[in-house]
């Protein structure tokens, strides 16, 4: 559904939803240095919100709603930091995304300045470094304070932290009495990869990208931590200057800044036409992967200061500057091998083993190939040259094969008939695309299940982690879930001999294991790994049966009475508890753990999924089929594998087939995976 088809009331509701979501993402990005969505997804939501705010404002239709997105810069500072008020606000930039947007920006500048065709207009085009903005204040040539952008008016005091960056001059000569310079703190790709290697070796937080690493390093309460990180900075603008500004153009400021000892923007050009702007953008975009630091676009600024003053500002951004964002970064590499992973439920997932390549500041050496259908559709083969993209700038995926670079002797990939780990037969269940290992005692399944068992949604055992499970499984100390609670009794002395396990870490592990012996019924049900039963369904079952014994004895009819649990899932649950191995698993665990009272699942009956029958078809990129089905159960919906007149909604992924055609014939509502994700985002 587009904005044009929404009523005014629906637009206001949508705007409030978008505002809530954007404020949440801003907090993640600016305060926590840990964004949960890609820049592209964030930009898309923000553009929609800005469009709605402008439309409703211009029609006097906001009715008491105060515009937030058009007024907003950054995010409020965290309470743990001291605050510094900016003498002159640190504004952000509007974004553009297409060549046509750039052409409109260029035309608008000339029109607003009343320039004739023969009048020159110089625009500085420069790379937009992806880091953390700062403002540094000098009084009589001495560095006195520094702050982050914050909300544009008040920033976080990072004075001592910024001092640790050796390219920041602490004294400058021949400067105005008061000078504020503004710029970006960043981390090079090389230093980022080195930092993550050190973090990994020390069992500390791994950063997702250089921007997060730079922001997290600069925003430390202990400057000594910042000092140990290799941070860099550039200066690109100014704030308060007294008694007067000495320069008349943007590029003239760069000359002053360079003479004062500040690092300045390394990639910039003065452009005089739209074609020159476009050429600079295309050139930098093409060379982006080889630049030693992350950039996420180009910034265009009117060069002359008198023109800047004439154009002025809108609420949160200058009218004389704008950012042209890049699409998600892609890179070329070669598939050296197609390997197979075995998941905890036996699903076999093909994985591309790649020539390591830096994509968006992250060294990528593997990418999922999902399943046989995905490989067949894209005709992916061993030794192919492929285009890799980090989906949402996070998850590596193969976008396409460069056919003209394919060697002559390649052959199409086919899935095996035997498990690569235990050599058992591979089977296909119902209408699933995936192949599964038929042996529930397969070592790979057992190991992956143990990782699942200790996850946050299940027993949540801090200090153990996936790497711990890998280690202890290979040593034979942990083979089944009950071993997790007892292995230290026999192997504590052995553990002390291993690197990384000192007295403190062993004590912490003991305490985590002891704490995990008390668990909610829903989490215990989830931890069992019943096929199709995710977090929300586990709460439904706990709420209905109140004890694990009652659930074990539940019949098919008992289960299908619960809204949200269909025939297929009911059969899987019944079969799970009939399995002798599963019965022994539960019996052994109940000797050790204590199950607490179940919690109630509160469902908002006004949500769009409530009591709807929903079918997912085609290949989903954002969710697995199980994740998507579990999500809608959380909102009181009923997932189904077949399309009928009782179906309320179809969510269609890539390559949707006969189910989609049937849905169209029956007149059933159909939405894309992206539209489904947007609906889910509104509810979270």
Give the gist of this structure.
By secondary structure, this protein is α+β, with helices and mostly antiparallel strands.
> With helices defined by DSSP (H or I, 4 residues minimum), what is the helix count?
25
Give the strand tally.
Answer: 24
Helix vs. strand class: alpha+beta
- Estimated share of beta-strand residues: 15-25%
Quaternary assembly = single chain
Q: If strands are numbered along the chain, what order do they take across the biggest sheet? A: 2-11-10-3-9
Helix fraction, binned, reads 25-40%
- Given as residue ranges, the uncertain stretches (5+ residues, pLDDT < 50) are 59-66, 69-79
Rg, alpha carbons: 29 Å
Task: Describe how the helices and strands are arranged.
Elements: H1 8-31, H2 39-58, E1 83-85, E2 95-96, H3 99-112, E3 123-129, E4 132-139, E5 142-148, E6 154-156, H4 159-163, E7 178-186, H5 189-201, H6 210-218, H7 223-228, E8 232-242, H8 250-259, E9 268-271, H9 274-287, E10 295-302, H10 305-311, E11 321-325, E12 330-342, E13 348-359, E14 362-368, H11 372-378, E15 385-391, E16 395-401, E17 426-427, E18 436-437, H12 443-453, H13 465-474, H14 481-484, H15 487-496, H16 503-515, E19 518-520, H17 521-527, H18 535-545, H19 548-552, H20 556-560, H21 567-578, H22 580-590, E20 594-596, E21 613-617, H23 625-634, E22 638-640, E23 649-652, H24 658-666, E24 669-672, H25 673-683
Parallel strand pairs: 2-11, 19-20, 21-22, 21-23, 23-24
Antiparallel strand pairs: 1-6, 3-9, 3-10, 4-5, 4-7, 7-8, 10-11, 12-13, 12-15, 13-14, 15-16, 17-18
Helix pairs in contact: 1-2, 17-18, 18-23
